[in-house]
Request: fold
Amino acid sequence: MNKKYIIVLIIICILTAIPALCSISAEEEVFVLTEEEKAIVSSYPVIYVALDRKSFPFEFYNRSEKQYEGVVVQILDRVKELTGFKFEYILTNDFEEALQYGINLQADIAVSRVHEGTGFILSRQLAKFSGHDISIQYTKRMPLEVVTLINRAIDTISEEDISSIIASEAVQYEKMSDDTKVYITIVISAFILAAVTSVTILTAYYKYKKQKDLFMNTDRLTGYPNIKGLKSVTDVSISSFNISSYCMANLVVNNLNHIREVFGYPEADKVQTDIAIILDDLIYNNELLAKANNDDFILLLQFTEKSEMAARINQAINRLNEKFELKKIEYPIVLSVGIYTPKYEEVNMDILMQKSLQARQFIKEKDEIRYRFYDETIHIMTVEENLMQQEFLASMEKGEFLIYIQPKISLFDNRICGGEILSRWYNPRRGLIRPGEYIPVFEKSGTIIAFDMYMFEKACQLLAKSLQEGKKVVPVSVNFARSHFTNIDFCNQIFALTVKYEVPPYYLNIEVTESLIAENAKMMNEIVNKLKELGFTISLDDFGTGYASFSDLPNFMLDFLKLDKSMIYNLENSKTKKMIKGITDIAHNMDLQIICEGVETKEQADILKLLECDIAQGYYYYQPMPYEEFEKILQPK
Ligand code: C2E
Ligand code: CA
Ligand code: CA
Reply:
């Protein structure tokens, strides 16, 4: 509370305390009720007073104390003490209403600030305060003798008494008004605080939400929008009508995993950020670039004509290649771009993304042209792939997958020294299908894992049967797709099958594709070691097609190196011969045997013998054949 009020309070208390005490003792001596007056009091014991409930400090209702207070109430309390009248208060909203109560004869006394009240029998001024008269008006329902007695009692209250009452109420007023001010200040402050807090919280929340949205909508690596970001931008800026004037391109660096593995994650990240900057440079203002989490770059480009689009994509691929050549990096950047130009009836982002991706996935590793438009063929192939996928499980149950085997020939003695299991699918709808048609589909969907295990189990069953029947058996190799080589448990799973069918793992050779060495060398190494430990032999398949080099080989405990058929096409060429001889020598130094695939002629077979290759496999010797046939040709005549 303000200092000023404390001083005023003390002074007023000192000034008023002594006279007040004196007057009380004086009153007691002066005012005595006559018998007649006592009778008046008992005949009219309760007097109803209408007053303004919030006319502070004259009269008011103190909520916290639950009682009526104020100058008028104190004076009437004094009257009560002197006479014995009891005052009941009727609270009204203002003086006007209090007077109206009196005029309506709903009360005996109305308290007002006017001295003379019309409609009342008598008015009595009690005091003056702050320039206001404080008066009570006796209503017409009051017996005169009661009015007279009350007035007599009021008369006995001395001027000092009234002053002291006024002073005490004034202090109370100052105090109260100060408290009220404090209260109001607190309430207002609380409101302001609450408002400020709410505004702060809301601002912070929206800021946080904006930042969160930005974070969620942005590719962490390149800083460009991710798919969510792309969708949120196009939702706002591209109507479903004009989206059909756009086309979508899906661009990916095919050998990104190889770059990651060989040159490290920071290098691969650098490639991606460089690509983002170059692509951003090539797109127009009303076009968009986004980077999906799975390494795909998504371009939403204004579409005019297919030829123009092809020219732009070509230009982008060339520009990227030039920039990377300038950087003199030690690896190639292999790009693939799938493009989808929408039709009017198919206008949404998900379809644009799905179809541009499908177009990209139909670009083969060996294709020279690195972009492809989505077209009817892709549509038909996609439908066919979906069908194959749907038929897969039932086909396995019905035994539609057949075990073919292609013999491997030792180049030292021309005898069959092994075989490679190659699947065939006898599909009633399509006839006998070669693996090139369905293996990539199973690889895409992940069903390849189940499929390869199925083939491996079949191989174990057939070997077990031959062994039980005492027939001649040679080791056979089984192809395993790259997706197996991410899980070390794969080794235990296949080992368990050899245990189940009681086939020594020595009879089973695991063919691993060469590209795995580059993609996931660490895991591949662990798996190869484990397989060797369990007794299997290992071949590195398709050597010469990917990025694996001799420098990688000493890290792996391999048994066979299978040269891809593309390496022996040009076998008459002296350079090819030298290369194969070189490979063979190095392999032999590493205790590896060389298997040559795709041997189609006697000439090729003779040259390979001269070059000291170990094993040959190809149509010159045998086509892949059903296992039963293989078993037959294997048996001594
Ligand atoms: P691959 O492992 O490179 O198998 C050799 C492929 O070359 C076979 O094709 C075989 O029939 C073919 N071939 C054999 N000799 C010659 C020849 O003299 N000239 C030519 N031009 N080709 C020859 P196929 O049977 O069509 O298999 C294709 C690929 O499918 C295989 O290539 C293999 O990677 C994969 N594959 C086959 N069966 C399975 C399987 O059960 N699981 C997995 N994951 N892949 C399989
Ligand atoms: Ca193979
Ligand atoms: Ca091969």
Summary: The domain at 3-216 is CATH 3.40.190.10 (D-Maltodextrin-Binding Protein; domain 2). Confidence is low (pLDDT under 50) at residues 15-28. The chain has three domains: 3-216, 227-374, 382-634.
